[in-house]
Design the sequence.
């Protein structure tokens, strides 16, 4: 089931009512609860290869920022006086095909660091797929590759499931597949706000149009939100181990 089918099914089954009793008393407005949803591979590919509209001399310029603290990065876009970050969820998958042991270990280290910093993680999976060559010469041959599955659905399900617990959602992706999810949630919860934060160098015009707000990620945000290396792991006030940035990362 794709995101559009999931959204259509949920939209046909659910409705929402608002019933707030007006007591006439002045009530101090609590900060808005913000929850961040991170499309892990969308972010990874933006850091791995910078692809702006205008070609640049070094498309790999952001690889050195992979050792990133997602909790700190999301907090950069939370208004300190009127909002509070309630949580962050990362959606990703581990490689599972031949000769990917080192790649998997690097990814597991990164995920462990995110979990230690308080990020929740939802794993999808990779599945083999037969695709056709789209090279300019048009050989039209088919070959096997591995594609990430379930991430789009997992993000949509989590945004809907967690909706009663946040006032505002920030979606870190440039994937327009989440537009139906945003539109459904806006209809179900008109009092909530939705924002999109595309990974650096990525455009997200359809999501920008669908959301109430949009943010721009800059290189300074990435610089400010790097994890320490090594990252000390504390328990009961004492450091008992460290997580080390993968040595093959710049």
Sequence:
């Amino acid at each position: 089931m794709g995101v559009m089918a999931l959204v259509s099914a949920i939209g046909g089954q659910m409705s929402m009512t608002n019933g707030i009793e007006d007591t006439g008393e002045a009530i101090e407005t609590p900060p808005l609860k913000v929850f961040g949803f991170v499309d892990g591979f969308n972010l990874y590919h933006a850091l791995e290869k910078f692809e702006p509209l205008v070609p640049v001399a070094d498309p790999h310029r952001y690889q050195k920022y992979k050792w990133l603290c997602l909790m700190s990065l999301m907090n950069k876009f939370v208004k300190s006086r009127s909002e509070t970050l309630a949580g962050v969820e990362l959606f990703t998958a581990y490689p599972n095909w031949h000769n990917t042991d080192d790649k998997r270990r690097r990814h597991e280290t990164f995920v462990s660091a995110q979990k230690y910093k308080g990020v929740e993680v939802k794993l999808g999976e990779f599945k083999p797929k037969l695709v056709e060559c789209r090279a300019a010469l048009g050989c039209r041959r088919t070959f096997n590759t591995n594609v990430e599955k379930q991430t789009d659905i997992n993000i949509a399900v989590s945004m809907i499931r967690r909706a009663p617990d946040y006032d505002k959602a920030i979606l870190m992706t440039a994937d327009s597949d989440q537009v139906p999810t945003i539109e459904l949630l806006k209809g179900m919860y008109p009092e909530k706000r939705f924002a999109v934060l595309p990974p650096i160098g990525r455009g997200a015009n359809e999501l920008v149009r669908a959301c109430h707000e949009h943010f721009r990620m800059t290189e300074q945000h990435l610089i400010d939100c790097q994890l320490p290396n090594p990252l000390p792991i504390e328990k009961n006030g004492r450091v008992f181990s460290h997580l080390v940035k993968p040595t093959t990362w710049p």
Observations:
- The mean pLDDT is 88.
- The radius of gyration is 20 Å.
